[in-house]
Design a protein that fits this description.
450 residues; alpha/beta; five-stranded mixed sheet; globular
Length: 450
């Protein structure tokens, strides 16, 4: 990770951490860089945005930078991150840009860059963008005369993505009462169209974005809103998305949450039964619940564990040819259909499992017993020293032995703060608290804690 770009793009408070000048320069670089790669062809870059007020400002800044460098900018307007990925890889664009800060509050925003294969941008290109932003590259020439780029309305690309999603469904959703929480974000422009076209009785909430209400007490990070709505309206199932709709959390007819771990189990087991789970393996992150692994072991399904971040999940899937992976937070990747997490696609896959197996979501989810989890953030003087301390590691080993096959402990350094996260999953909250506190006590005794 660099000074500006993290694992999920350049993100921060609009016009504080991420400014219009930053956006203009990112556009300038991308238009020039991809133009140089194919000098005989006009560079074409597609842009999508979420519903934040600042997204329009950043869109115009990016367009100015791109066209000033000689690229043509194609505008999808308000759309989802996975739709940009889909359009880039199916319409022959040099790259794509999504303006969004995902599940963050409205005053934040971000720039996600997607390569020509619909994947997150390569690190070596990100390093070059950072170098330009830091003024280390010198000036990029301006396009002149007929080389200046143009702006093209490309709402048709978003419509083709909607059609693609509809084509993935295996059967009609007729007589299914479905609730959708669109987080006043990108899904507001797409999700209802998909479920209506498939015949569902669609009930939609939080789909009236005003630029300031994205993710505000709604969507996948405030799931209690959809839980209550599903119960009050006696719906069969509900799906909540985040601001750019690359994640999905489900709610069953009883109003119980079905998170990313349970979704991976439900879809993975169904895919195995259908002979579609490649290499009989699901890719998870180290933060997936211990209960998921116990359930997968019971079903004879293998799993991989990666660092936290859907980027790392996807890299593992590509390297090993796996077809299903994701995070507890609801980033689920079905690599046969997408190169990124896609909340609406995930909804369709959950619906497929329910309809094909003729079982309600609560029955499918009941097979996973989620273990209680306690996670505490410990501020330390030096993250590596605190985590690697022999006495701390000895205590971790002691806890591991005490838990046996009925839980686990995980120490993880924060990527952005002077913090070590201590997490324990066990059969009871009391045991979780006890073991977490034991390890923290050793960290304090060793003088690591601030």
């Amino acid at each position: 990770m660099g000074k500006y770009f993290g694992t999920d793009g350049f993100r921060g408070e609009a016009n504080v951490d991420l400014t219009v000048e930053h956006a203009f320069k990112v556009g300038r670089f991308l238009g020039w860089y991809y133009g140089q790669k194919e000098p005989d062809e006009r560079c074409r870059i597609v842009i999508g945005k979420d519903t934040r007020r600042s997204s329009y400002m950043f869109e115009y800044s990016l367009v100015a930078g791109l066209t000033a460098s000689g690229a043509d900018a194609y505008l999808l307007h308000v759309t989802t991150t996975p739709s940009v990925s889909y359009v880039v890889r199916t319409e022959g664009f040099n790259c794509g840009i999504m303006i969004s800060a995902s599940h963050n509050p409205y005053y934040d925003n971000g720039i996600k860059v997607i390569n020509e294969r619909g994947e997150k941008l390569e690190e070596e290109v990100i390093e070059k963008i950072e170098s330009y932003l830091e003024g280390e590259m010198g000036e990029i020439p301006y396009a002149k005369k007929d080389q200046i780029g143009r702006t093209v309305d490309f709402a048709a690309g978003r419509n083709r993505y909607i059609g693609y999603l509809i084509s993935i469904a295996t059967r009609s959703f007729k007589n299914m009462r479905v609730g959708l929480d669109c987080a006043n974000g990108s899904a507001s422009a797409i999700a209802k169209n998909v479920f209506d076209a498939l015949g569902a009785e669609t009930h939609v909430i939080n789909n009236e974005p005003n630029g300031l209400n994205i993710n505000t007490d709604c969507g996948s990070t405030h799931i209690h809103v959809l839980q209550q709505y599903v119960k009050e309206h006696h719906l069969d199932v509900g799906f909540a998305y985040d601001g750019d709709s690359d994640r999905c959390i489900a709610v069953d007819s009883d109003g119980e949450v079905v998170d990313g771990d349970k979704i991976m189990y439900i879809c993975g087991k169904y895919m195995k039964e259908q002979g579609m789970l490649v290499n009989n393996t699901i890719v998870t992150t180290i933060m997936s619940n211990f209960g998921l692994y116990k359930a997968l072991d019971r079903e004879g399904i293998s799993y991989e564990k990666t660092a936290v971040g859907d980027k790392y999940v996807y890299e593992n899937m590509v390297t090993n040819g796996f077809c299903l992976g994701g995070e507890q937070s609801g980033h689920i990747i079905f690599s046969k259909h997408a190169t990124t997490g896609d909340g609406i696609l995930t909804s369709l896959k959950v619906m497929e499992a329910m309809l094909e197996k003729k079982q309600p979501l609560n029955k499918l989810a009941l097979e996973v017993e989620i273990f209680p989890q306690v996670l505490k953030n410990v501020k330390v003087k030096n993250k590596k020293d605190a985590q690697d301390d022999p006495m701390v590691q000895a205590e971790v080993q002691k806890v591991t032995e005490a838990l046996g096959d009925d839980g686990r402990i995980l120490l993880r350094q924060s990527g952005t703060e002077p913090v070590v996260r201590v997490m324990v999953e066990a059969s009871s909250v009391e045991n979780c608290e006890k073991y977490v506190d034991q390890v923290i006590a050793v960290m304090k005794a060793q003088g690591h804690v601030l």
